């Protein structure tokens, strides 16, 4: 293409260019020179024009010759005219090894893509021209047979494939059935978009056998996307797929699903035939409802009624009675269950079997188990390719099973659920949630998705199920589970006629209505059992398809009897966009008060059709397909144009998309006045710019959508420089970088740095269409162009660019305003919807608190129902109210539960208070009898352990008082009326505690006996305690619990050194535990006892030695706690004040453990020897304690203690990082240094320091320490 130079860059005009005269010749005159120049220029232009015309004529002639006319087109209707017998190839057999082989195949067009040019139709107003370009040179197809696809291509080839053939191939609709003849070629690289990865077909001939007559409701590629795919194009809704099930079944995923479904039935037959089963076919019409009258379909049967078989159960049993021994059936099953769930259908395919039993019903379980394992293994080994293809769309983990199937008893399953805090009765059927939870627990514990649950309760099984011989509350029945959902239900059947008739009466079935069935049992029948499997459910769970409808060919549920049943007129009534529109069979009248004017009555019906069709856009709506067929073809053009004047640009744009008739009518230049009139109906809409036609302007602005080349709706912000909004694909193909533009073109095209991510080479971009348009305009410029004309042309181009930017900014401003207004309108509609719903609920008697509870507790569900900008009509309310009613009932029940729980807590607090009063009134305690011992100091009674409320709730009287829903006063009266039962429960609790402690003591003493017998010694049994108590104390003491009151029976906490004596320490223990509960401690004392209380053998030995030395070996803990001894311990350290027995035992136990600790290897330090006399086992020659006489006590009291200020620290202990350095008076630390560290002459500042100069804790060395050192 020639690129003209601007006049400003030229130094000579064409008239100044002349031929220079030859040397010696006379120069021609000026007129002669001008004449010669003109003639030469004319001759040159004529030659160029002739050459160009010849070239164009040759190109047109070559383009018009179609040498491949016989190689493409539509075949005549196949009426079996002839049979050539040519073999047809199968795509599944194609691979690179067949390179060069010619094939003939029939397939569907899965996808098609033209390459080598764009097919665009734009209106260009700037130069009053219409531009159409179609330049495709190659078309890629994906051809499909069932679930197999192969890439095929048609490209222009001399004498074989013409340009017309390629163009025709590009127009073949998707899902057309084509007959293709071509050659298989090895692909140089892996083909990702087809199942055949290493080969493709080069097409020589292509003919269509059948083409779709209507626009497809969805693209098969969209329907076959993974559910987690987040690409721009949305996946097809599930309802749309089911409404167009025939098209949906063409997807590769659906093809693979039903290949696997067929495989399941084949493997089912294969397994059972190998085990001696025969196939039967039972009738599906029955004279009586079998299992439950509410779950069967009732149909008219001549003059009576019949029922569709809920299962072939009765027919299978009658076949067993006919001595068929082992039978199976594959057939339809009907269930009239109004369950719209992911796993229920009203009609499905049942895989049923029945067999005789020789000894035990587990023979049937073994057969069923082996059959299912055969199916699982067959699917995994033979159909792995199909399984992987399905997983690309339905991602899932691999289905797992054990080599030996897990079998759980019903009780084991219930126990597993209860371990995870599920409240369920022993004989309550499993809900769907509990089934799934049990499946997850089994998966976590046993790593299997497949298991068997045996011994179901009789109450939840059919009447013909055999009860368990040991416990008739359970039955010989079983269920098989996959991924936590039941797939098979079976049992041993009742084969005794009398028992069977009795079971019928119990469940409400009239035996006379099933007389033929009973007669088969009266004539004798073998013990037998069996089960039934849902084919669709097995496929769904094995592949984890999420919804059973994906595994059903044409699913039937309570809301779906046909793929699509729509009455056009009824749908129009529901779909009319204006609230004032009334429709009847003859004439449609319209009243739209918001319109500025109304069309005349003659246009009413057409107006209603138009506005309804606009409202039904996009075209995947089924009603839209019916609305866009014939009615619009009958509209007179002048009537239509009159109607269109009352629409807005968005309405006209939607109409232009309906069919070719409306598109041709509205997109032509003569329809510009319609668009301009529509613009006036929209406030603030900017006028159409110069660079666009009115139709294209409104297509980009009024509808707030910019559709470019591909027609995909893009929601990103419009570019303000280029006035477009492009999808990702179009941005790559329709945008060129600034570096690719010549200097002559760049100034005259709009350029934007934002339409695409900049790179080093290109910082700004322009539209390819704008570039091509400027190139064409430059080509049409005359070669003789003066500077003034060029400047006018240049300023005009630059002005157009500014106008485009200005219009884009105005359009963006308009879009921003309309978005805000639209958002406000939507929010107002949502608010009005909520207020309308609340008013309707209040009118039905619901209180405001119930409505508020729904809004707070079910916020997500409430938003899904309310966050819709649509008004509540009566029809909408009929669909909405049942959903709200379920929520209201749930939360009303929850409100009752909350109130009940509040009343329960009030009863709990009351019972706690009454129990405290009971404790004060009973005064259960033991105390010493009066004696003359001078050692008794301030004797106080010892209280027996008393339970808290949480510890006695296991007893019926307290449980009934707490759980029965009654008022506080009624509970108080009931408590007082049951005083005897309350006292008995308290006594039983104390007896249980004592029995537990007695068992601990006996176990410890038995262990000591075994140790002593090994050492050839003998251990005597303990005698009862010899302490004298008051008469009232003995009512709490018996020969059985006497042993607990001995002072040498010592208990302790688990892993703790704190010692406990019965009963005083235990009373304090329970009281402190309850205080912890009130502060949020969590567990109750009854829970703590089994794990935290142990017998202290060490404390027992110390206490026995102490009591022996005090002369009271058989004293009780009550006596020893009441006595205070002035004693001299082994350390010669006199305790200032009375020392109780349990304090001394605790002291020696603690010090003994310290001695063991510091003499261990981990605590040894060089230069230090520990000599702890509390190690009473190594110092057994000396008594633990001795009583002092009065003189020794007085002398000890008179001895002064060293002042704190004279304390010093041992520096050597600090230097060696001893855990407890020596701290004390100076003379005692000096002795410590001499005897422990071996320092004969300790020095201040070197071996010990003043206490004031050290910060830290240590072991205080006092008189007891000096005694230890001296000894």
UniProtKB/TrEMBL annotation:
- Which reaction(s) are listed as its catalytic activity? tRNA(Asp) + L-aspartate + ATP = L-aspartyl-tRNA(Asp) + AMP + diphosphate
What InterPro entries does its record include?
A: Aa-tRNA-synt_II, aa-tRNA-synth_II, aa-tRNA-synth_II/BPL/LPL, Asp-tRNA_synthase_2, Asp/Asn-tRNA-synth_IIb, F-box_dom, NA-bd_OB-fold
Please give a single GO biological process term from the UniProt record. Answer: aspartyl-tRNA aminoacylation
Positions of the region Disordered? 1-61
Name the HAMAP family on file. Asp_tRNA_synth_type2 (MF_02075)
Domain (F-box) ranges: 629-678
Q: What is this protein called?
A: aspartate--tRNA ligase
List keywords of the entry alphabetically: Aminoacyl-tRNA synthetase, ATP-binding, Cytoplasm, Ligase, Nucleotide-binding, Protein biosynthesis
Q: Which organism is it from?
A: Ceratobasidium theobromae
Top-rank taxon? Eukaryota
Query: An example Gene Ontology cellular component term from the record?
Result: aminoacyl-tRNA synthetase multienzyme complex
| Lineage of the organism | Eukaryota, Fungi, Dikarya, Basidiomycota, Agaricomycotina
- A GO molecular function held by the record: ATP binding
* Composition bias, Basic and acidic residues: 23-55
Where does the record say this protein resides? Answer: Cytoplasm
Enzyme kind, highest EC tier: ligase
* Annotated Gene3D superfamilies: Bira Bifunctional Protein, Domain 2, Nucleic acid-binding proteins
| EC nos | 6.1.1.12
**Stored PROSITE patterns:** AA_TRNA_LIGASE_II, FBOX
Q: Where in the numbering of this chain does the Aminoacyl-transfer RNA synthetases class-II family profile domain appear?
A: 258-555
